[in-house]
Amino acid sequence: MKQLKDLALLLFIFTATLACTSSDKTEKPLPDYETVPQINLPDGFKIHVYAENVDNARSMVLGDKGTLFVGSRTAGKVYAIIDKDQDYQADQVIVIADNMNQPNGVAFLNGDLYVAEISKIWKFENIEEHLNSPPAPVLISDDFPTDGHHGWKYIAFGPDGKLYVPVGAPCNICLSDDEIYASITRMDPDGSNHEIFAHGIRNTVGFDWHPEDGTLWFTDNGRDWLGDNLPPDELNQAPQAGMHFGYPFCHSTGIADPEFGDQRNCDEFSFPVQDLGPHVAALGMLFYTGDMFPESYRNSILIAEHGSWNRSTPIGYRITRVELNGNTAVSYETFANGWLQNESPWGRPVDVIQMPNGSILVSDDTSGTIYNITYSSE
């Protein structure tokens, strides 16, 4: 009889321990925030304001301690956004750098924040310990051109530990003698071993690596002034170094450029995985790997389409989703829209990143807002 009592006591302790452990790992429920009624989303998804008054909010990256760092272009600022109580609504927005030359790109590695100006890469060391009194930045590289046209940069660290930095074409359509233009470059975190990774990329302002095989995927903005519907923007993949994606000779899946197309055969180049809308200005992209969204979203791509500026009927101003089967795109559809109302934009999405709880953030450089998109099946 005593053995049965002892066994029951052990079972009670074990069950209670499991319950406590499970409770400790459970995310606390988010408040029922006021949604943004203008934005349309699939059933079960909601959007609320994560942070506002973030002038010209552009590229985003999370620090190791949860600080959201945000770059800008015209504002010349870099922001640190703090969510002290982890309720997915910002409590404080700090300007940690000002008067910079279009500091669009931000990346984070080992406690340090990397910021890309047009021609320079800077590092703010141990930044999360010094948000209210940031250290003087360390110059990592000044090897980049000073051209303002497509000079702003998106940057990110790849699974190889290298910092990837694109260099846009210094024009709408041209062929430069300097091969660094219209490329993606990469370097070691200290700026050494700088090399060109891929060529023929007019202007990429967003990329990510496939979570299963580590392949680089990127968006690219097509050239202007070939009409409303040509050429499309592109979603590409670069499984190896040295690939050429066509610019300025060819666009999309074999559209020869009217000015440069007679110089090279389009079959020489790598074609996009998916044509995106013409002139949508596809910028930031993300492989979704979280657990919050439906299972069908896992490893699909979310793209921030900033929106057209030279099309008779505006297009873009939305978040789109590309579903993949292996490395083949099987669908391209709108995920979130409504930033364009009556052919007039009140907001323009720039970047999209995933949060620890599986929700996503979207930056908007027109309204100066960061949004949080969540999902619940209930």
TrEMBL record:
Every Pyrroloquinoline quinone-dependent pyranose dehydrogenase beta-propeller domain range: 41-374
InterPro entries linked: 6-blade_b-propeller_TolB-like (IPR011042), Beta-prop_PDH (IPR054539), Quinoprot_gluc/sorb_DH_b-prop (IPR011041)
Positions in coiled-coil regions: none
Protein keywords: Signal
Signal sequence region: 1-19
Protein name stated in the entry: Sorbosone dehydrogenase family protein
Naturally occurring in which organism (per UniProt): Draconibacterium halophilum
